[in-house]
Amino acid sequence: MDLIGILFGLTLLIWLAFRGWSVLILAPIAALLAAGISGAPLLANWTQTFMSGASGFVAQFLPLFLLGAIFGKLMDDSGSIRAIADSIRTNFGPAHATLAVVIVGALVTYGGVNLFVALFVIVPMAQGLYEAANIPRRLMPAAVGLGTFTFTMSALPGSPALQNAIPMPHFGTTLFAAPGLGLIAAAVMLGFGLWWLGRAEAAAKRKGETFTSAAQPLCAVSVLREQTMTSFEFDVAEIDHGHRSMDAPSVGVAALPLAVVLCVNIVVSILVLPRLDASFLAEERWGATSLAAVGGVWSVLIALAAGIVILIALNWQRLTALRETIDAGANASVVPLISVASLVGFGSVVAGLPAFETVRDWVMSIEGGPLISLAVSVNLLAALTGSASGGMAIALDALGETYLQLAARHGIDPALMHRVAVMASGTLDALPHNGAIVTLLSVCGTTHRDSYGPIVMTVIVGPVLALIAVIALGAMFGSF
């Protein structure tokens, strides 16, 4: 009966979320249903267990959501994203339309710009290139997704994406966990995606397919907002607030803040933090923690803060409504943060139920060792929730300590566990109900029927192949 409660609560959460209900309401209701069917006390599970899990996630990641959203909004309003996109479009031209789209997406997202903010600049650029090259519109979402949803989110070392940050407190790692394996995984995703898109474009040309007008209009902001709360770290409602500069900076000025974020992150992670005397963190007033548990978050916060300072200094005259832009970025971080935190709260309630031991035993019994077990559990939850960050947060909140113990027992570097968890979260999360997929199709003006097949190849199949390669190489050679 206890297991039925867990399954019923999860099913309700997935079904109603797919129908557009807010996770803020669904997560506690689903958690209480699971607890009630299991005979556990309802109010105690809500105010103690659910809220402890949700508030713990907020305490860990509020600064990251906040600075990330502000940085993305400043990049947008300063015209920096547009300047980078225009430069690459001019240099590559229609002859290399797909490569140009992928590179723009990769540059801005790897540099710390939120995916949702980037979409509204990248897609118009992609549309112009695809129309000039006469490439079918239906392939455009797959190219945009390849550059923004895949290797820059889960594979490239140092990526400031939320998905790359979530495992750090659990495994005591940094954003640069298993850098060699991450680079190999990125090469697999990028290489496979470009290869498949090239074949698809050639096949479409042979069939006489051409670029067509939009198949569907852009969804209303209110609809997109509910669909994207657990897929982006940016509230759609704030995208038009602030003031976009009509005077874009040079491409060098536009790209410098992205480079600053990456370089500062490397320096702080590798050179600065390891030399600090952080023994004071063991005191109760600092949470009785360690530098290994918080250092990864610290490094990306310092990097984003440095990027924000440089961005404002370089674009002071362009940011004519600076306060409004910063306010919009700050406001945009709140609802997504609470939405993902609510999923974590749901996971905390489920993990506290007696039946969860059965789930844990099943996950631990998966053949192939801890790496495969971790990949399956994160993949499954990311697929069910339609959220890479939400699924991984639930899995690691419930099983992170168990996997860390298994890693120690089997001699597995926690950095390898980190990379596998992040990559596993970015595969089957891209099922049709995923908010990022729905938004991408809407912004591109196409439909699931026309474009989801190509998306599967670049956003799911390529990352799955890369995940298999990382697990195989990690099992043979360890983390590197």
Please state roughly what percent of the residues sit in beta strands, choosing from under 5%, 5-15%, 15-25%, 25-35%, 35-45% or over 45%: under 5%
- List the uncertain runs: none
C-alpha termini separation: 45 Å
How much is the radius of gyration in Å?
22 Å
Count of DSSP H/I helices: 21
Shape: globular
What does this structure look like?
With 480 residues, the chain is mainly alpha-helical. Helices cover 73% and strands 0% of the residues. It has 21 helices and no strands. It has helices at residues 2-18, 23-37, 42-77, 80-92, 97-110, 115-133, 140-154, 162-165, 168-171, 179-206, 221-228, 251-272, 291-314, 322-332, 334-352, 356-364, 370-385, 388-410, 414-425, 435-444, 448-477. The model has no long low-confidence stretch (mean pLDDT 87).
Task: List the defining traits of the structure above.
mainly alpha, single chain, 480 residues
Secondary structure elements and pairings:
Elements: H1 2-18, H2 23-37, H3 42-77, H4 80-92, H5 97-110, H6 115-133, H7 140-154, H8 162-165, H9 168-171, H10 179-206, H11 221-228, H12 251-272, H13 291-314, H14 322-332, H15 334-352, H16 356-364, H17 370-385, H18 388-410, H19 414-425, H20 435-444, H21 448-477
Helix pairs in contact: 1-2, 2-3, 2-15, 3-13, 3-14, 3-15, 4-5, 4-6, 4-12, 5-6, 5-7, 6-7, 6-20, 7-10, 7-20, 7-21, 10-21, 11-20, 12-13, 15-18, 17-18, 17-19, 18-19, 19-21
Describe the structure concisely for a colleague.
With 480 residues, the chain is an all-alpha fold. Helices cover 73% and strands 0% of the residues. 56% of the residues are buried.
